[in-house]
Amino acid sequence: MKYISTRGATAPKPFSEVLLMGLAPDGGLMLPEHYPQIDAATLQQWRGLSYPELAFEIISLFATDIPAADLRNIINRTYTAEIFGSAEITPVRTLSDGIKIQALSNGPTLAFKDMAMQFLGNAFEYVLAKAGRQLNILGATSGDTGSAAEYALRGKKGINVFMLSPEGKMSSFQRAQMFSLQDANIHNIAVQGMFDDCQDIVKAVQNDAAFKAQHHIGTVNSINWGRIVAQVVYYFAGYFKATETNAQKVSFCVPSGNFGNICAGHIARQMGLPIRRLIAATNENDVLDEFFKTGVYRPRTAEHTHVTSSPSMDISKASNFERFVFDLTGRNAAQIRALWAEVGSGKGFDLSEKLPEIHEKYGFASGRSSHRNRLDTIADVYRSGGGLIDPHTADGIQVAREVRQAGETIVCLETALAAKFEDTIHEAAGSVTVPRPAALEGLEQLPQRVQTVPNNADIVKTIIRETLEK
Ligand SMILES: *Cc1c(COP(=O)(O)O)cnc(C)c1O
Q1: C-beta of residue 92 within 8 angstroms of C-beta of residue 102
Q2: Domains plus CATH for the chain?
Q3: What residues does the Tryptophan synthase beta chain-like PALP domain cover (predicted)?
Q4: For residue 67, how far is its CA from the centre of ligand 1 (angstroms)?
Q5: From ligand 1's centre to the CA of 446, what distance in Å?
Q6: Residue nearest to atom 14 of ligand 1 (CA)
């Protein structure tokens, strides 16, 4: 299996190279040359597999340059009851109104990003060791992504993590989660500025080609192909849990921001998983909801990006969306270059002539949720005995309830646990006790490791250089 870029100007590459890549050199995103097709007999056989067995079957179709025994070992070390809270890894439960929830947030940082990042951490370490290489991850985070990366890469050989975060802007829980890590390869850097300033510093370092090459600087953002492929697995797992036979169809409702999570659902559907609809649930930042309703993609400016109570979906443009549009255009790289030239110039594009295909051939639907909807949904699910759900998952439940058709089975993906967003839970449901996994009791009291720096890229470069020279 080789990988190509959506912009069509990158030579085909094997999985283990694509694994370490961010954007392709031509500015596109990497995708497999074709999607493996799962026939009925294979699907039937997969129904009985454990999560790690299923993960091996699926990922081995994509990671064809990693020997089977090595891949199995990476996967068996990743998807364990110890790391994900149960042998099922992603159990499915049913709410009183019949909507199902697939738990994806029982990993170390209580958000679905662990599902892919934990795999990536082990896969990175393996691929780097084989190539005798080193990788220094530089990232910016406002919370979730940074902690998932740090917990996935802590203690890994050949890897350092330099994670920038805006000083004082994360919740005390998020700060404690990241800054309490004492692993020598994890470096937390609090920048005196906003999240955008942190991102600008990352870009400035990335743009310094000499520094980047000399210090082996890489990233792990949501466009990484390794993350998408690991996410494909739980759509199959959720489908098997929600059905009795493969004659049944299931729809997935996915709280969406950068289109990474639901992009994996699109790939699972293209592989032949019987998915009826893929429902994108957005918050007030509804660029994707607008596209799936109108066919018009209209990325927002920073000023038109809302700060909401489901903050991990506060995006102005959806960075993985290009992967779907590539398929939608019949994999036409020239058209993708033209469409994204429009995006780059601050406009967007209009594919409304493709709406029937978007809905019928590809099965997409969408909805949006507001702060009020989110609070009401959290309160309602709690009162009806469904437990406390987090604000992002609430956006998914709200939209699923709104768009559900007669006889449709909808599985909502749980993208975080309520424990990460106590303030919104209290606003929604009053002074309830928000359960926290035992391992995280007293987290805020642990000693913290972080250095605070002015908003200045050169100072960050100096820290990286001096740390690596030690
Ligand atoms: C990252 C994240 C999302 C959005 O996922 P995308 O892949 O960016 O669409 C939703 N909810 C939570 C809790 C997240 O951390």
Answers
A1: yes
A2: 92-109+225-429 (3.40.50.1100)
A3: 103-327
A4: 31
A5: 27
A6: 312
Residue to mutate, 101, 117, 144, ligand 1, most ligand atoms under 8 Å from C-beta: 144
Q: Which residue has the tokens 């283990």?
A: 16
Phi, psi (rounded to 5 degrees) for 441: -60, 135
Average confidence (pLDDT) per 10 residues, the chain, 470 residues: 97 95 91 98 98 98 98 98 97 97 96 96 96 94 88 96 92 91 97 88 90 91 92 98 98 96 98 98 96 96 87 88 98 98 93 98 98 98 96 98 98 96 95 91 94 96 94
Q: How far apart are CA 432 and CA 425, in angstroms?
A: 8
Q: Long-range contacts made by residues 18-21, C-beta under 8 angstroms, separation at least 24?
A: 18/225, 18/226, 19/120, 19/123, 19/124, 19/127, 19/224, 19/225, 19/226, 20/124, 20/127, 20/128, 20/135, 20/218, 21/224, 21/225
The residue written with tokens 């890229």 in the block is: 457
Distance of CA 312 from the midpoint of ligand 1 (Å): 5
